[in-house]
Amino acid sequence: MTSAISIQNVSKTYKTGFSALKAINLDIENGEIFALLGPNGAGKTTLISLICGIVTKTSGSIKVAGHDINSDYRAARKLIGLVPQELSLPIFETVWSTVKFSRALFGKPRDDAKLEAILKQLSLFDKKDAKINSLSGGMKRRVLIAKALAHEPSILFLDEPSAGVDVELRKDMWNVMRKLAEDGTTIILTTHYIEEAEMMADRVGVINKGEIILVEDKKVLMEKLGQKQLIVSLEEPLDRLPTKIAKLGFNLMQSGKKLSYQYDSKKEKPDIAKLITGLSAAQIAVADLSTQQSSLEDIFLDLVKK
Amino acid sequence: MNLVGTYAIFAFEMQRFFRTLMQSLIAPVISTALYFVVFGSAIGKQMTEIEGISYGSFIVPGMIMLALLGQSISNASFGIYFPKFSGTIFEYLSAPVSAFEMVIGFVGAAAVKSILIGVVILMTSYLFVPVKIMHPIWMIGFLLLTAITFSLFGFIIGLLADGFDRLQIIPLLVVTPLTFLGGSFYSIKVLPEFWQTVSYFNPVVYLISGFRWAFYEVSDVSLNIALSMTTGFLLLSLLGVWWIFHTGYKIKN
Questions:
Q1: Strand partners, A33
Q2: What percent of chain B has pLDDT over 90?
Q3: Cβ–Cβ < 8 Å for A48, A7
Q4: Which of helix, strand or coil describes residue A83?
Q5: Protein fold of A5-223
């Protein structure tokens, strides 16, 4: 089966010489929720804009359900709905007329019942005759989602859906996304909120400085989160790790003043008493004990720093 | 071809016009009436007939052209500039709509609007002076050709403009002077020979001459030249639009 989106060796260099994306390779599978995580300016929006036809790529190829976005752009674009980051809306129009316009622009025949269902799902139906400039920011964001869904796309892009949105609305939006995913829509969202990726995504891709540095199943990523580290600070630095201690599972840290012990907090409870007894048997004096847990944030920051 | 999408763009643009129907149509009616008062009644009395046509009647085609050019350019340039300015252009670019279909939607709407205004001015003229249209088919032909050409030209201005003030520069500094000096209110034959020669470099002269010929069979240049020059401008504008979309210049970076 062809991927929902297949990106091969795609790069983008702006006229200013700024290289926004460097040889990106990425496949997004049908029906998954994929979170593209990265700091500001990492190239998230550029990548989405390339796929949707708003920015032209410098090289490489992009296919949407097997349709090349250049040679077969109509077929490719019909499948895609885009919710941009900016609240770009025709402010003098009513909600209903702009959503109707979006559907027609994508060449779909008029279907008021369908649009009504979309607006109801987004709790917008009672605002359908309101002018867009009279709506709040959160409402405007929903109108953008309604516009993107108006032509019933099978792939939905959400660029920073949580930017400037309150907790309540964010949760509402997550529910809408989950509902869409259950109905088989492929969802790609960009975010710099790790919590959002954690809550929503099936897979997470980390992008930084125009490069995808990690693509991982969220569950695998979460397992890495389960890793805990016991750190033992020593009174006296060690030159080398005694064999007995190494057998217990300790590692000597760089300075020689600390020992570390890795364990998976979800699977095992370490027998700390045994470890300490082992240390005192080897006549190693302990100054302090601490535990550390790596979070997605740590993994992320660690990756991004490199 | 995405006919539904093309029509959606067209209808959306027309909607704005009809929403402000009163000001869209009353403004040209008032300015036409003013021209008749100033040029027709006040100054026109001092003027002799031009090639057997009373001055008031003579200026009717010129006034329609004046409005047609201005309206075509401003409608089309604003129509495409506004989505660029507000960011809503992302939707057009990400839709399964070709550049050609976008041009038909935007330029078509701008041309239809300015033709409607031209027709309103023509009807207003009937209230003030006798108007005769000897070649209605040619008249409609020139009306269409000019409206489309200058809507395309306006579309180019809107695509290239970097700010609202930029939208006005070319209409104010180039098009308005050329229209006034292009024989809207006089026959260039009344000019000294040197200025007549200069006038032949003014493209608007050909538009107005051809259009006026369709009314009264009087013209500063031959019909064939007028027609080929007008068609030439149309092709030039088309080429400009094609180049912009082809290269993505100022739309896609």
A1: A187
A2: 37
A3: no
A4: strand
A5: Rossmann fold (3.40.50)
Average pLDDT score over residue span B62-84:
91
Identify the pLDDT of residue A146: 95
Q: What is the DSSP string of A54-66?
A: SS--SEEEEEETT
Convert the pLDDT of each residue in A106-165 to its tens digit.
999 999 999 999 999 888 999 999 999 999 888 899 999 999 999 999 999 999 888 777
pLDDT of residue A1: 66
Domain ranges of chain A: 5-223, 226-294
Calculate how close chain A gets to B19, using CA atoms only, in Å. Answer: 11
Q: What is the ipTM of this complex?
A: 0.86
Chain centre distance of CA B56: 21
Burial status of residue B175 (CB atoms within 10 A of its CB: 0-12, 13-18, 19 or more): buried
Residues in B lying within 8 Å of A, measured between beta carbons: 2-5, 7-9, 12, 15-16, 83, 86-88, 90-98, 248, 252-253
User: Which segments of chain A are extended strands (E)?
Assistant: 5-13, 19-28, 33-37, 59-64, 67-68, 80-83, 155-159, 186-191, 203-208, 211-217, 227-234, 251-252, 258-264, 286-293
Same fold, A5-223 and A226-294: no
Q: Is B221 helix (H, G, I), strand (E, B) or coil?
A: coil
Distance of residue A47 Cα from the nearest chain B Cα, in angstroms: 13
Q: Which of B12, B87, B94 sits opposite A80 (nearest CB)?
A: B94
Question: B253 and A14 in contact by Cβ < 8 A?
Answer: yes
Residue B223 confidence (pLDDT) above 80: yes
Q: Which A-chain residues 44-63 have CB contacts (< 8 A) with chain B?
A: 52-56
**CA nearest A54 in B: which residue?**
B93
How does residue B31 score in pLDDT terms, banded at 50, 70 and 90? confident
Single-letter amino acid code for the residue at B87? G
Q: Which residues are bridge partners to A159 per DSSP?
A: A190
CA angle, B30 then B34 then B35, to 5°: 120
| A302's tokens | 């660690």
User: Yes or no: is domain A226-294 CATH 3.30.70.100?
Assistant: yes
Model confidence at A297: pLDDT above 70: no
Burial of A219 (0-12, 13-18, 19+ CB in 10 A): exposed
Q: Write the DSSP assignment of A120-165 as a string of letters.
A: HHTT-GGGTTSBGGGS-HHHHHHHHHHHHHTT--SEEEEESTTTT-
Query: d(Cα A102, Cα B97) in Å, to the nearest integer?
Result: 12
- Nearest Cα to Cα of residue A294 among A265, A251, A257, A252: A265
Between B148 and A199, residue with greater pLDDT: B148
CB A261 within 8 A of CB A232: yes
- Cβ–Cβ gap B96/A147 under 8 Å: no
Nearest CA in chain A to B3: A107
> For residue A12, what is the nearest residue in chain B, using CA coordinates?
B253
Residue with tokens 């992302």: B90
